[in-house]
Design goal:
The chain is an alpha/beta fold. The protein is 46% helix and 13% strand. The strands form 3 sheets. A 5-stranded parallel β-sheet has the order 5-6-7-8-9. A 3-stranded parallel β-sheet has the order 4-1-10. α6 packs parallel to α7 and α9 packs antiparallel against α10.
Length: 291
C-alpha cells in the first residue's frame, strides 16, 4: 500500500462528552473529496490520550468505514508502555486500519537502545505496517537518525513521521534508508522543506482546515513545479502558525467549530482557546475566507 502524499491527522469531534460520529463521518468525506491522500485518526490531534480503548476502536472503525478503501487509514497506536502499544495495534488492526502510527515513548525518556527495542518488539508482535513518529517536543526524547535507520531495516517498519524540526536529521535518514522507506513531515511549517530533503508527504494538522491547499503543495512538488510549490506553501504559512497559537488541537478544533463543521468541545486537560487568541484566530480564518 502507498503511504505517500498529504495526510490529515484528523480531529475527534465530541458532542456532550461522547464521540460525534456523524460529524466525524462528514469530516472524513469532506477530506477525501478535497483530495487528501490518507486519514490518520487517534493521534495527538485526535486527542487519543483521553480516549478509552473502546473509544479508540470506535473512532478508527468509523474512519475506516467512511474511507471505504478510497484512501488508507493510519491509526495512532502509540504508548509509553510497549505491551499497551502492541494491544492498541491489534485493536487498530481489528478495526480495519491499513497501518499504525507509533510515537516514541513519552515521559519514560528511554535511551536510543530502549527506543529501538520498543519499536522492534512492536514490529515482531504485530501485523499491520508501522510508521514511526518522532516528536521530541511532545515526548521529551529525540530518536536519532542512526536509530531510525536501524529500525528501517525491519520489514514491517515502512516509514517515519518526522517532527523533530531538524532538517539535517531528515536528510540523514533520507540518505541512508531503504528506497521504499517513507519520510513524512510532522511539522506543517516545514512540509515543503522536508519534501525537498527527501520527504514523501506529510501528516498534517492544518489539513483539517484546508485539505486542498495542503494537498496542492505536495502535488506541485511531486510534479516538479517547485516554484509553484514554494508559493503554495508560503500562502498557508500564516494559517500553519495559527494552528499552534495554543496547544494542538485547541486552535484547529476551534477553527473547525467556527467553520460550522464540529462543536467546539475538548476533553480536560485541554480547555477552550483564550479570548485574545480566539480573536487572532478568527482574523486569520477570515483572511483565508474560511469563516
Amino acid at each position: 500500500m502507498n503511504f505517500t502524499g498529504s495526510m490529515t491527522a484528523i480531529v475527534t469531534p465530541f458532542n456532550d462528552g461522547t464521540i460525534d460520529e456523524q460529524a466525524l463521518r462528514t469530516l472524513c468525506e469532506w477530506q477525501i473529496a478535497e483530495g487528501i491522500c490518507a486519514l490518520v485518526p487517534c493521534g495527538t490531534t485526535g486527542e487519543a490520550a483521553t480516549l478509552s480503548m473502546d473509544e479508540r476502536q470506535r473512532v478508527i472503525s468509523i474512519v475506516v468505514d467512511a474511507a471505504q478503501k478510497r484512501v488508507p487509514v493510519i491509526a495512532g497506536t502509540g504508548s509509553n508502555n510497549t505491551s499497551k502499544a502492541i494491544e492498541l495495534a491489534y485493536l487498530a488492526q481489528e478495526a480495519g486500519a491499513d497501518a499504525q502510527l507509533q510515537v516514541c515513548p513519552y515521559y519514560n525518556k528511554p535511551t536510543q537502545e530502549g527506543l529501538y527495542q520498543h519499536f522492534a518488539k512492536i514490529a515482531d508482535e504485530t501485523e499491520i505496517p508501522i510508521i514511526l513518529y518522532n516528536v521530541p517536543g511532545r515526548t521529551a526524547v529525540n530518536m536519532t537518525a542512526e536509530t531510525t535507520l536501524r529500525l528501517s531495516k525491519l520489514e514491517s517498519i515502512v516509514g517515519i513521521k518526522e517532527a523533530s524540526g531538524d532538517i539535517d536529521q531528515v536528510k540523514a535518514i533520507a540518505s541512508g534508508a531503504p528506497e521504499d522507506f517513507v519520510i513524512l513531515s510532522g511539522e506543517d511549517a516545514q512540509n515543503l522543506e522536508i519534501y525537498k530533503a527527501g520527504g514523501k508527504g506529510c501528516i498534517s494538522v492544518t489539513a483539517n482546515v484546508v485539505p486542498s491547499q495542503v494537498t496542492k503543495v505536495w502535488k506541485q512538488f511531486e510534479s516538479n513545479a517547485i516554484a509553484d510549490a514554494d508559493g503554495a506553501q508560503d500562502e498557508i504559512q500564516k494559517l500553519n502558525a495559527a494552528m499552534f497559537y495554543e496547544t494542538n488541537p485547541i486552535p484547529v478544533k476551534t477553527s473547525l467549530a467556527m467553520m460550522g463543521k464540529i462543536r467546539e468541545e475538548f476533553r480536560l486537560p485541554l480547555t477552550p482557546i483564550g479570548e485574545e487568541n480566539r480573536k487572532r484566530l478568527r482574523g486569520i480564518l477570515e483572511s483565508y475566507g474560511l469563516v
